[in-house]
Each structure stands twice: as structure tokens, then as C-alpha cells.
Amino acid sequence: NFIAESTHGASCLGQLAGLQDKKEMYKYAVINLADKDKTTLILVSRPETTPLLEAERSSRELSDLGINNQILIINGVLGEASDDLSQKILSGQQHALENMPQGLGFKTYTIPLRSYNVLGLDKIRAFLSSDDYISADMESKLTDSKSINVLIDDIYSAGKKVIFTMGKGGVGKTSVAATIAVALAKKGVKVHLTSTDPADHLSYVFAGAENITLSHIDEKQELRDYQNEVLAKVRETMSDDDVAYIEEDLRSPCTQEIAVFRAFAEIVDKAENEIVIIDTAPTGHTLLLLDSTLSYHREVQRTKGETPISVQRLLPRLRDEKQTEVVIVTLPEATPVFEAMRLSEDLSRAGINNKWWVVNQSLSVADTSNPMLAARADAERTWIEKVQQISDDNFVVIPWLQEPSIQNIGDFKD
Fold first, then answer.
1. Which of 14, 15, 355, 383 is deepest in the core (most CB within 10 A)?
2. 122 vs 3, which has greater pLDDT?
3. Is the Cα torsion angle 193, 197, 200, 206 positive or negative in sign?
């Protein structure tokens, strides 16, 4: 749309002539994706409330582009329960499926939870045929792992002021951010908990608690505010033609990055007076914003905006390991661990410190006699040991829990 509407040639994406060459390709890509005879788009979710809400949001954004040929696969549905833990998981899944978001009213398939991670040709064959349990030691519960209280006490005693929870989508960054926030607030510390995640799951976690304030960066609103501020300034000194050029540039995709980045910096600046905890976007969007700090000032100057003091002191604060802690959250599975390793490397390149890791939703620290869950717990060991190695033993393990709330956040300490 930006390419089609642009008349002045303003764009942070480079010369529009180059983009125009691809305009027809972009157009036909969307046409092909929207053609139900050529394309089926498969959304995949877990049978839990927040992943289903994310699937609904993705479906709605695709529908806005005219891509309605969608189906839904719900992966990891537990078949039966034989102990307290499996009953809790099964009940939670059934509740989520019985209360599916209205926007997911199209054809849906389910895939049962398997007793192993589907990696390798043999596992794929087993996945498509039967599910014979892989033998597991029913008494092999992990007993030497640290609880999240160790991480929280370390952050508190070190006096950290800015805390990020980062990781692959669906690993539980929101619940970990909320847990840290509540625990620190109970120690009498003022905490500001915010999200740059467009799904804004914090509102589903709790409505508020003592010593905690909440906020969410609304990207569209931040863009409008930034555009209005810049245009009000340039209209004081520029001609109508010059203002028209600026108006066009303010519609470019990069302008939204600038607007959100500024809002992000202003929230981090609250760390002068309180601890700021940030539940970051699963796409790594916030990390991209951090990396763009060095080019931010140039982009702002081009659109005639101003660089606030909060932005000027953002990167030094984030690179100061005495002030900032990035908590990487992962699951005890191959893909989330490898994604987390890449994230750790990216942070290192950006000069941002990461000490603590959280392995979330682990069955290996939970009590279960269910053969399916015991087998999955056994399979987790490899990935927990991997996290132990790369974190230099600075990691905690959280047992498998259902959707967090202000009432059960305290359960994490157990």
C-alpha cells in the first residue's frame, strides 16, 4: 500500500524505483495466497488459551489481506489422564478447546500429544502410525534444579533496574515476567510491568497487584502520536510541498519502528525510580529495535523528529550489566533451545548481558505417574543439560503449569 500511494519518493526502504519493479510480484504473491484453489494456510496452536488467542490474531491479520483459506491444527492434545498432573493438564486443555476464540471458527484438526519429540525419520514414522511409549524411568524426577526464587533473589540483591524476558513465541515469557514482577513487588519494590507483544497477554495474567503498575505499547497509537507531533512542528517552518513530503515519509514502515522505539525508551527510562520488567514480543521485534539504536538518530533527523533524552541514554543503560538483566526463557525441547541459543548470540553481539535462563513447562521436575508424561519428562533431560551447559549453570526450571493468574503465581516458588 505504501508503494502504491507514494508520489514523492520518500522512503527509508531505499529508492522507490527499485521497489516499484517488485510491485507486481508483491501483488500476485497476495493473490496466490488468497486463492483457495492454490493455497491452504495452516495455523498451528497448542490447546491452551493464550496460544489460541495468538492464532486468532494471526487469522484476523491474514483475513484483512483477503487470505481466508485457513485451517487450524491443534497440536499436543492429551488423550487421557491417570494422575493429578495429567488430569490438570487435560482439564486445562478441554477448557481451552471448549472456549475457543470466536475468530477460529473454520475447519480444525487435532494431533495427540506424543511421548517423544518428533525429531528424526524414525520419530516421524512413529508419529504418523502409532504411539508406543518409549520406556522411561518413572522415578527419574529431576531433583537438583534451582527454583525461580534463586533467580529473583539474585536480581533483587544485585539491584537490577531493567529486566527483559525474551525467547521464542509460546515459551511462557509472560508468565515468567509476571512471576518476577509479583515476587519483587512482595519484597516492597516498585515494579512497572510492560509488554511490546501485540497479543498483550499481560492483561490475561492479572489485573494488577500492590506495588505494580502495568502498561502496553500500542504500536498504532504510538505511530499516530509521533506523526502528529512531527507534522505540528514542520508546519511552523515548512512550505506545503515540503510538508507533503514529510507526510509521505511518515507513512513509511520505518516510521512505526521509530515511534515504537521511542515509546520503548520512555518506559525503560522509568527505571530511574522503579524496576521495569518488559515482556518482549515473540518475533524478536524488540531486539531489532535495540540493534537499531545506532541508526535511530539518523532516521529521526530525516523525518524532522527529535531524539528524546530517554533514547540517548537507552543503549548505555541496556549494556550496563549492573542495571540490566535479560532472562532468556525456553522450553525443554530442541527448537526452543536452539532459538534461545541464537538469541543469546544476538544479545552478545549487541553488547547486552544475559546471565539467567529459565526452562519453563518442565515435566521432569513435576510429580507424575502417567506413562505419557513420564516418557516426555525423560526426553527433556538432554535439553535441560544443554541449557545448564550454555548458561554456566545459571538456570532455573519451572514445572508444567496451566495458564498463570495473580492467584496462582505464587505456585512458581514450589
1. 383
2. 122
3. negative
Q: What DSSP string describes 18-54?
A: HHHTTHHHHHHHHHHHH-TTT--EEEEE-SSHHHHHH
Task: Work out the angle between the directed axes of helices 371-390 and 84-98 (0-180°, nearest 10).
Answer: 90
| Cα–Cα dist 24/28, whole Å | 6
Q: Are 366 and 399 in contact (CB under 8 A)?
A: yes
Contacts of 190 (CB under 8 A, 6+ apart): 211, 213, 273, 274, 275
How many of the other CB atoms lie within 10 Å of CB of 33? 15
pLDDT for 20: 61
- Rg of the chain taking only CA atoms, in angstroms: 24
Phi then psi dihedrals of residue 12, to 5 deg: -80, -5
What strands lie across the sheet with 41-45, from one edge to the other?
Answer: 41-45, 70-77, 108-112
CB atoms within 10 A of CB 347: 20
User: What residue spans of 99-198 are helical by DSSP H?
Assistant: 121-129, 148-158, 173-186
Crossing angle of helices 49-64 and 84-98, rounded to 10°: 30
Residue 94, φ and ψ in degrees, nearest 5: -60, -40
Q: Are strands 324-330 and 357-362 parallel, antiparallel or unpaired?
A: parallel
**How would residue 373 be classed by pLDDT, with cut points 50, 70 and 90?**
confident
C-alpha cell of residue 279: 515482556
> What are the backbone dihedrals phi and psi of residue 80, each rounded to the nearest 5 degrees, phi first?
-150, 160
Sort 301 into a burial class: Cβ within 10 Å, 0-12 / 13-18 / 19+: exposed
Q: What three-state secondary structure class fits 212?
A: strand
The x, y and z cell numbers of residue 45, run together, are 496452536
CA 27, 30, 36, 39 torsion: positive or negative?
A: positive
Its pTM stands at 0.77
Distance CA 406, CA 375 (A): 31
Distances (CA, A) of 144 to 364, 374, 400: 11, 18, 17
